């Protein structure tokens, strides 16, 4: 009897606790899952459900994106016309499979694997228009106009594909109904697409998250802007801006809405995007990285952007400098900003007058007298010396001064310019004194590249 009484007492005590626990369960968050709750075409549902199983990483990336939050599905970006040159033939095969619930013909719809700026322009017209006139979008044209490796075929087509074209972009082609593997995969910033548009937004906003946050971080730019000839990422990390970013970058608000990312509010020191693309003060956001530039520091001879023959900018450098100054003035005083530009302008003048122009005049003299052979390039030592004087040390000196990185302005820059210049002048003095032709490397390796400029850009002969 006593035992029965104790059991009833325990049950009575547990009942309120059990009811309370059951009630509190309602407040627990559910396991995170993706649910299709908004109206979308059946074909879009098929895309999502299929890719959730076939490519779960791709699906998860998209599901966490702003696109997914805005009900923008695979079809909004990938849907194509059956007559489009880049329609995926392989994708049709999925509709013939019997082991997939959505692999039937009622879900069949033409899609293109390559999403281009033209596709993105349906929702982002201003950004696409700005990007189209930038150096980024037109970098293949620029590269072919100034790069001797391409014009003289001094590297192989595959060396270009895995190196140069990875960042600059390929000219996409179709072979046997499929994207030609000689041109694909590629998300180069100047890629020539089959619909005639230039570039790939996914160079900076990678698939399938398409994150604004990612594009605001300097590491994204550092995918391509690194190395001996344009080490902007290394220069940035040496600068005070980069130092502050490394110390406080984890506190930055990278997810601020487009056009609202504000210095002093969302971040303490700028990233690459802050200076070259993001808006601040009275300066508007832009996807044209040619804006805000007052010197063309990638060129052999430093010129104003409007005078850069490979791709003359339709800008006034004074207007663009004022835009960049407006960005600087969000954090710095006028005396600081004016002093910086005085230093930068002086560095440009000294590079042009002391190093480049005398070296160029000497090379012209050697070619004129037949002591150097102009039919090929890089097969004579002086050609390499001159190329690296402007393409390596000269760029590092100018870009180091431009981004306030002292080690790159001096030790990796002007210091090495001096040694390169001395070697060039010493060797050329001997050739002129002895009236002797320079030694030529007859068996230059793998100089097999196609020297025909892409007709998609330059037109057919």
UniProtKB/TrEMBL annotation:
Range of residues in the leader sequence: 1-21
Top-rank taxon, per record: Bacteria
Pfam families attached to this UniProt entry: Cytochrome_C554, Multi-haem_cyto
Keyword field: Signal
Name of the protein in its database record: Cytochrome c-552/4 domain-containing protein
Keyword Signal appears in the UniProt entry: yes
InterPro entries named in the record: Cyt_c-552/4, Multihaem_cyt_sf, Multiheme_Cytochr_ET
Residues covered by the Cytochrome c-552/4 domain: 120-179
Matching SUPFAM superfamilies: Multiheme cytochromes
